[in-house]
Design a protein that fits this description.
Layout (H helix, E strand, L loop, with lengths): L6 E6 L9 E5 L2 E7 L5 E5 L13 E3 L2 E3 L6 E2 L5 E3 L17 E4 L2 E5 L22 E10 L3 H9 L4 H4 L10 H4 L3 E5 L2 E12 L10 E11 L3 E4 L2 E4 L2 H4 L11 E13 L2 E11 L5 H31 L12 H30 L1
Antiparallel strand pairs: 1-10, 2-3, 3-4, 5-6, 6-7, 7-8, 9-10, 11-18, 12-13, 13-14, 14-15, 14-16, 15-17, 16-17, 17-18
């Protein structure tokens, strides 16, 4: 089952260009994205109501989309406004529209009940055009269920091993130091100090090691918002392992989104960067390349994990202390799905009672 009443990342904003039709699938639902003449994004069901042909194979005509099978034309609100050879347009000649918003550098789509689409629930990410930050962005497609990618991001102890030559190089702290986990309204927050972390070459002027205040939020359906902060070695102890009360000398940016396509396919969007005051464009490019290498390491092991799971889907996983994040988040998503299902059933029950 899927969580429908949530904002899903459908694309980077620049993927949906003027006069271009873009097809996407989210939670097994086919979508077609395009922009009107004023630049506002539109998301429709990618399924003509006539013979169910994909509208993404159609043609844009200013703000409208024409199906190129039999020529039906649809307005941005999903209404059919023209049927070749037929003057009367049935009121049922409509395709579903989806609430859409652009925040940061992402196009977000609400996959559930339109009246519940609250833009205030969209997590705050950084736009690629924000002058205070430098970032680069990309995406990967996975042959794996989205929850396995979520699990990976909810338990960063794997950095010390899966990324022993990249993000976790010479840093056993990722596996040895457990984060404090607190519940948010629609997600979890992770916080901890990682002391004595090895410095990258662009930080060597500040010493061979540093303390990292590592804090990130993970929000439904799979949004990772992280702003880890670098401090001089010894800061964590001076703060008595409590949240820092001093300004860091470096702040990194990681905005990521896991979007389920189907039960066994997912798209992983990611942006990597730093404050403009902390890093040059060359340093951010290096950080991005380094991080992308690590993301391919994740992809390799998670896709292999999915193949093993598929051999015996009933086989249970052994839970360890590091699994607190994945366990809590899966439980939260399941609770939201069950609440959604109950809300859907309730009107029918009430109608029967009447």
């Amino acid at each position: 089952m899927w969580l429908r009443n949530a904002w899903y990342v459908a694309a980077w904003s620049d993927e949906v260009a003027a006069e271009r039709i873009t097809a996407r699938t989210i939670i097994n639902q086919p979508l077609v994205l395009y922009r009107k003449a004023d630049g506002v994004a539109v998301v429709l069901e990618d399924r003509c109501c006539h013979r169910l042909a994909p509208l993404s194979m159609g043609r844009l005509e200013r703000d409208d989309l024409r199906c190129m099978y039999h020529g039906l034309k649809f307005a941005p609100d999903g209404r059919c406004i023209e049927i070749p050879g037929q003057a009367v347009i049935p009121p049922t000649a409509v395709v579903r529209t989806y609430p859409v918003a652009e925040r940061g550098s992402w196009i977000w789509v609400w996959m559930g009940e339109a009246e519940q689409a609250d833009p205030a629930l969209i997590p705050a990410s950084i736009a690629a055009t924000d002058p205070d930050w430098r970032l680069q962005k990309g995406w990967l497609d996975y042959d794996a269920n989205y929850q396995l990618i979520n699990d990976n991001l909810l338990d960063l102890s794997h950095l010390s091993y899966a990324h022993e030559n990249t993000l976790g190089r010479n840093a056993p702290q990722w596996a040895n130091e457990r984060p404090r986990i607190s519940r948010l309204d629609r997600g979890l927050r992770f916080q901890r100090w990682l002391r004595g972390m090895p410095a990258r070459h662009y930080h060597k002027a500040r010493g061979d090691t540093f303390d990292l205040w590592h804090s990130y939020d993970f929000l439904v359906p799979g949004i990772f918002i992280q702003r880890p902060a670098w401090y001089p070695a010894g800061t964590g102890d001076r703060m008595q392992l409590q949240p820092p009360a001093e300004a860091p000398f470096f702040v990194r940016l990681d905005d990521q989104a896991v979007t389920p396509i189907s039960e066994r396919t997912s798209r992983y969007f990611y942006a990597v960067g730093a404050r403009s005051a902390d890093a040059s464009a060359a340093i951010v490019e290096e950080m991005f390349a380094f991080t992308e290498t690590a993301f391919h390491e994740d992809k390799s092991i998670i896709e292999a994990q999915q193949q093993v799971i598929d051999l015996d889907p009933a086989r249970r996983m052994l839970l360890l202390s590091a699994d607190g994040g994945p366990t809590q988040f899966r439980r939260l998503v399941q609770q939201l799905i069950e609440r959604e299902s109950a809300d859907t059933r309730r009107p029918a029950v009430a109608a029967q009672a009447d």
